[in-house]
Amino acid sequence: IAILGILIAIAIPRLGGFQDSAKARAGEANAKMLTSVAQIVFADTNAYPATLNDVINAQKGGADLVTDKSKITAASYTYTAATGIVTYNGGGANP
């Protein structure tokens, strides 16, 4: 029983690091996807969306380009309207 306790004590802190790493990667992937959405809007209209909310709510052919809007918050992402680039800040509860 003591050996199992020691192994669990070693394993639990390591699992927390995997969750943080996965959240960071998910946030970076979302930023790339949002940048792609801004580029799609630019290709259609010859202008980048004005705000991050405009990127999130962009549609093409009546369909939403961003399907899971609940994961994207202004606290976690920065949008540059001049270039259409979205970057992940690492903040917020959800990446």
Secondary-structure element order, N to C: HHEEEE
Distance between the termini: 38 Å
Overall morphology = elongated
Q: How much of the residues is beta strand, in percent?
A: 5-15%
Content-based structural category: alpha+beta
Work out the radius of gyration. Answer: 18 Å
Major β-sheet strand ordering: 1-2
Poorly predicted ranges: none
Number of E-type strands: 4
Residue share in helix: 40-55%
Number of helices, counting only DSSP H or I runs of 4 residues or more: 2
Characterize the biggest β-sheet. 2 strands, antiparallel
Mean pLDDT: 87
Describe the protein's architecture and organization.
By secondary structure, this protein is an alpha+beta fold. Helices cover about 50% and strands about 15% of the residues. It is built from 2 helices and 4 strands. It has helices at about 1-45, 50-55, and strands at about 60, 65, 75-80, 85-90. The strands form 2 sheets. The chain has a two-stranded antiparallel sheet with strand order 1-2. Strands 3-4 form a two-stranded antiparallel ribbon. A hairpin with a 2-residue loop joins strand 1 (about 60) and strand 2. The protein starts with a helix and ends in a 7-residue tail after the last strand. The model has no long low-confidence stretch (mean pLDDT about 85).
